[in-house]
Write a structure and sequence with these properties.
Layout: E1 5-9, H1 20-29, E2 35-39, E3 54-57, H2 74-80, E4 84-87, H3 90-95, H4 100-112, E5 116-121, H5 125-129, H6 133-144, E6 154-158, H7 172-189, E7 197-201, H8 206-213, E8 220-223, H9 230-241
Parallel strand pairs: 1-2, 1-8, 2-3, 3-4, 4-5, 5-6, 6-7, 7-8
The structure holds phosphoenolpyruvate.
Amino acid sequence: MPRKLAAGNWKMNGLRANLVELAKLEEKHGDADVDILICPPTTLISACEDTPFDIGGQDCYAADSGAHTGDVSAEMLADAGASYVITGHSERRTDHGETSADVAAKSRAAYDAGLIAVICIGETLEEREGGTTLAVIDAQLKGSVPDSADAENTVIAYEPVWAIGTGKVPTLTQIGEVHAHIRKRLTDRFSDGTEMRILYGGSVKGSNASDIFSVADVDGALVGGASLKADDFSPIITALENS
Ligand code: PEP
C-alpha cells in the first residue's frame, strides 16, 4: 500500500505571522502516521525549517540557473529546505500557459534536485461535460510525467479544474473511475506503478474527507483553501489517518 499523504497548497497566501498555524498543526499531528506536506509560498520555505512536516515549493523553473528573472530553480527550493515541489497545478497551466511538456521538464528538474514532484492533472468542466475526461487524463499523464518517474520521486494529484476552490466535488463514483484509470496507466507504464501515490484535490474539507478517502486508489489529498488554518486541515489529516 502506498504511504498516505495529506498535502496543503497555500498558494499565494501566508506571511510569517501565519506560521503559527503550523505550530498549531504540530500540536495535534506532530507524530502523525501519515505523511504531511505543506507547500507555503516560496518566501516562507526557509522559515519552516523547524516544522516536523515535509515542505514543498508550488512550482519550479526547469533550468538549474541563469537569466530567468523572478524564477526559482528546484535546486534553490531544495537548498531552502523543500523536499517536494508541485508541478503542473492547473493555476500554472491556465495563468502561465504551462504545457504538459513544460510540466515534464519541471518534474525532471525536481528529480535532478532530489525533490519529489507532485504532478497535477485534471479536466476542465467543459471536458468533463464533453465526455473527454479520461482522454484528457491520458494525454496529461503521457505528456507531464517523465519516463524517469517512480514511486519514490513522484506523486500524482488528480484535480478536476472545476472542483478547485469552487466547493463542487465530483461524486465518489467519478473520483473512483478516474483514480482507477490513473492507477492502470501507471502500472502499465512503471514497474512500481502500484506504489505511486495518487492524491485527489478539489474542495476537500473536513466534512467530505472521510468519504473521499474511502474510494479505492485515493492515497491522500492535495488541499488548497482548507490547508491554511490548522483547525480546517486537522480533520482532513485525521480522516486520512482513520481511512
Ligand atoms: C488546490 O489548489 O490544489 C486545491 C485543491 O484547492 P482547494 O482545496 O481550495 O479546492
